[in-house]
Structure formats: structure tokens, C-alpha cells
Amino acid sequence: MLFRLLYFIPYVIATVVSAAIWRQILSPTSGLAPALAGLGIPWLEDVNFLGDGRLALGAVAFINNWQWWGFLVVIFLAAMQSIEPSLYEAAQMDGAGSWREFWHITLPSIRPTFMFLSLMTVIWSFLVFDYIYILTQGGPAGATDVLSTVMYRAAFSEQQAGYASAIGVILALISAATVGGYLYLRRRLRWEI
């Protein structure tokens, strides 16, 4: 129960608070790297995770995934606990090992949950505006720009409402196609939720 709580805490923390904490942790002047350098571990001293165009998008993606990971873990644990224990007992009586139990019992039993959470992760990835805007505002040099930050900048900074609306429609179409593909697979493979 304690580990579920620890995994779920990042999901409950407000995005702005979480981003501000990570901004401090990744700061090249007062964050983790200078603290480690003070302890005699200088290998991160010259690394600027949010200021280097090659590292910034990966750093923001890591932080975003860190927040959602707890939610995914709790849902997967619930799905795995709902699997009938007698299936595992029968497999053990038949001589199946841990790998076969996972492949033939666990994975098929949680497949609908896995597919649903994959769908939600794809859709949530289009909503990653808040972390990018708070941490880098699309920089450095556009390295962390995604459609939502481009849409925001077009609508509010450059006053191009038509262009921003077109980006919004494209995002909606991509999301609709993703949901349509999921529903098609669910119907075709007869997945139950």
C-alpha cells in the first residue's frame, strides 16, 4: 500500500508545482548537478538539461512521464489483481513456469487495460502543454515545441487565430483517428473492458 501511495503522489501534485520542483532540480546553477559536484561527483556539472537543445525534449518527456507513471502503475496493479488466482494454480499444476504464466494468463487478462491506457497515453501526449510551457516555453530554439505550444503561441502571441484553429482541428483529427483505431481493434478482437 505504501508503494502505491508513493507511485501515485506525482499524479496528485499540481503540474505547476511539479514543474517548478523539477526546474529547480535540473537548474545548472542551483540544482542537482552543482550539489553532486560539491560532493565530488562532477560528471553532470556542465550539463544543462533544459537549456541544451539535444537534451531539453527528453528532459521534459521524462518529467511528464514521471507524473503519469503512478496513475498507470495503480491501474495496472488493479488489473493484475483482478485476474482469477485459479488460472495461475491450474497453470502451475500443468507445469507452466513464470514466463508462460505471464505470457498466457497475465498478458491476455490485462490486454484491454493495456490497450486502453496506451490510447489514453497517446491522447494525453497531445496535452503536454503545461510542462513544456513552464519549463522551457518551447525553447531552446524550438527544441521542445509541440503542436500545443505552437498553437498557443500562434493564438496569443502572434494573433493568428486561424492558424491556431487549424492546429486545433489537426489535433482533434489525430485524436479521433487514434480512438477510432482503438475501437476498431477492440471490436475486431472482441476485447472486454
Explain what the structure shows.
- With 193 residues, this protein is mainly alpha-helical.
- It has a single domain, classed as Orthogonal Bundle (MetI-like fold).
- It contains nine helices and no strands.
- Helix 2 crosses helix 7 and helix 8 packs antiparallel against helix 9.
- It is flat and about 60 Å long.
- The two termini are 25 Å apart.
- The mean pLDDT is 89.
What is the rounded Rg? 21 Å
End-to-end Cα distance: 25 Å
CATH top-level class: Mainly Alpha
CATH topology name, in short, is MetI-like fold
SSE blueprint:
Blueprint: H1 2-12, H2 15-25, H3 32-38, H4 56-81, H5 85-93, H6 98-125, H7 129-135, H8 147-157, H9 161-189
Can you give me a brief rundown of this structure?
This protein has nine helices and no strands. The chain has 193 residues and is mostly helical.
